[in-house]
């Protein structure tokens, strides 16, 4: 955090941190987010510094609400920013697209995840929203540009009264580079909403659309002359057009191949700088277009020139773009041999790394939850999965998620299954996800008389993205104590047929509660309560409380069941079961499973 708010002239920042620095240099007063990697750290940074620097920050209940809060602040004259991952943009889009019509001066930061490192559902390219919503869009390639483009986004949004989108990708978010700093401007966190006549109706919306198109024509002129659309001179009649982190890969490839091609880096990508591209390609015979993920730039360039274009026909259409893809692709196009040392190591680019199956942390409450459900209900039930740490329940040894779609969809999809089959679904949804999108879906279950068991895995934190608080934690994003929302009370208000909060670490009682809930007709809810063990261990260590450690005192064939439990602290060495005391976090579930074979260390 010191590097972000320092008074020094420069510092090393991650792309996400540079976004925050750019916002601070712009006089931001309001920031909101919902945790979603690879954008989470933007909110984390604001959460740690907001109170000290006079900026309002919140972790909102979901991305749509985060956007709407930031829009309200922007309408009130406060410089505002909302940051979400690409799926979060989908959630927020319902309000984002109308806000473009309504002249809202807002900065929207989106983090895409090519390669799906933290995003298992789709490999989305959010640049399509630029066209769909007619949203001016900037694409930084490094931390310096992330800071500079954030400042420009605030200027552009204020000048034209329009939301401006900054599109990051994983490698820009998590690459650290030197950033030159300017003065931090203390913004205002309080504004004034100026009332004016609000006209509503189809004819009014059409008029607003016309004004938006006129505004985009003016913004297009800004794009044409923007310093973020940079031409670098080179030799030959083969040029390169690129954007984002791909620019760095191209520079590296040209250095390795000892060439310097004419290069156009498009950082202000929507409205598309048509004239800039026309001037760039007019003396070229071929152009190479390198971008992640979809051929957005490529399609635009193909509209305005007939020269030979190399794009997604040569570079990967799916998966993260890597430096070696660019190096090999350019060498192939130019019929240029790779440097000898690279030729010798080319096989390294295709090394197959041994797959590591993700697993729950030692002592994780979700492990006990999945194991108990499997023990009580068997593995043949229909299991609805959702977004969070508990997605790991899809892997061995549990294999207890039959689908994962989007936040809250575990309940929504299961409803359709319950209504069209004779099966009673078992639904897993986390506490933060429940607050995010689960409540309306639960209401739908009850309203439409479904028969399903909903298990809310309540570990008190939004743990998957870095232990951010949520409405059930009792803390705001800025660390202030607030009302702790009770999930059981929400379920009761939704008129479910059965609800109970159960401690997952009291394993035998939890099993009984699962059985009781499943046997009830209608909508049953079990709140599987157990604090994230990582957060709990950190807290206990700070309090000077020692964790209990366990050991196997008697070997027995029954202990093979421990492998199905899947705790990484439990191993088999030389034919015997042992508990690694360095990994054991003292949850005591194994002791409850095999009290005669496992004891607590004194």
CATH topology of the largest domain: Rossmann fold
Give the DSSP E fraction (strand runs of 2 or more residues). 15-25%
Structural class: alpha/beta
CATH architecture of the largest domain: 3-Layer(aba) Sandwich
Strand order in the largest sheet: 3-2-4-5-7-6-12
Describe the structure in your own words.
A seven-stranded mixed β-sheet has the order 3-2-4-5-7-6-12, with helices on both faces. It folds into four domains: 2-192 and 199-225, 3-Layer(aba) Sandwich (Rossmann fold); 229-347, Rossmann fold (3-Layer(aba) Sandwich); 365-533, Rossmann fold (3-Layer(aba) Sandwich), CATH 3.40.50; 546-600, 2-Layer Sandwich (Alpha-Beta Plaits), CATH 3.30.70. With 602 residues, it is an alpha/beta fold. The mean pLDDT is 93.
How do you describe this structure in short?
With 602 residues, the protein is an alpha/beta fold. The chain folds into 4 domains: 2-192 and 199-225, 3-Layer(aba) Sandwich (Rossmann fold); 229-347, Rossmann fold (3-Layer(aba) Sandwich), CATH 3.40.50.920; 365-533, Thiamin diphosphate (ThDP)-binding fold, Pyr/PP domains (Rossmann fold, 3-Layer(aba) Sandwich); 546-600, Alpha-Beta Plaits (2-Layer Sandwich), CATH 3.30.70.
Helices and strands, with pairings:
Layout: H1 2-5, E1 10-14, H2 15-25, E2 30-33, H3 40-53, E3 56-59, H4 63-75, E4 80-85, H5 86-101, E5 106-112, H6 128-133, E6 137-138, H7 143-160, E7 164-169, H8 170-173, E8 176-180, H9 202-225, E9 229-232, E10 238-242, H10 246-257, E11 263-266, E12 268-270, H11 274-281, E13 286-290, H12 296-304, E14 308-310, H13 323-333, H14 340-345, H15 365-377, E15 383-384, H16 409-420, E16 426-430, H17 431-447, E17 452-458, H18 487-493, E18 498-503, H19 507-519, E19 523-529, H20 533-542, E20 550-552, H21 561-565, E21 570-573, E22 576-579, H22 589-593, E23 598-600
Parallel strand pairs: 2-3, 2-4, 4-5, 5-7, 6-7, 10-11, 10-13, 13-14, 15-16, 16-17, 17-19, 18-19
Antiparallel strand pairs: 1-8, 6-12, 9-11, 20-23, 21-22
